[in-house]
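Example record used in the benchmark description.
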Amino acid sequence: MGNKVGVEYESRLNMVRKVFDKIDINRDGYVTIDELEKFLGVPRKEIIKGINKVDYNKDGRIDFREFVDFVSKTFLSDFKFFDKDKSGLITLDEMKQAFEKLGKTGAEKYLKELDLNGDGTVSLDEYIVVCLKIMGWD
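Model output (structure tokens):
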């Protein structure tokens, strides 16, 4: 079982590496604010806020290790919004509650899209994989 976990981790790390390489336009091994802004289409101040959380050496750019941390923190925060009981899984009830708070409908459909293994819940791994694909990061 430990080997399977290692393989899954390596697979996720490779996915994040592909994303990093897509964003790193000039291939210098760093992702800059400008590169993230072009790739994500997100307001610059949001990108700066995100980078500041993981730019440990404060050089205004992030290397791969920092990028892995950035992706983890971004998706973990979003995942925790849904996972109210902190079980590590998002249930349909939790999804419905979150959608209600957001004033949205379609929780069932969204859960089905995220539930890659069909067990009726969404794990953090499933959440990250689908979010990366939605963002075109696969």
